[in-house]
Amino acid sequence: MTIKISLEESIQTLEHHESFGAFILNIHQLREECIAELHKANYEDLHQISGRILAYDQILQLSNFEELRRRFG
What we know:
Shape: flat
């Protein structure tokens, strides 16, 4: 038997767990580190770093980061 849960439902379930909050706070920290890397990156690395920032942004948006930061930060 296969259980199908949407991404939104999964996140709504996970957001009640402190460990998920800690994980998302770590994702935010990784994003901030990437932004700091942009200042010293050479031209060839800009595309890769920008892609990582975008990926982290998507995770933070999907996970309702501001609410998690308020609750677990």
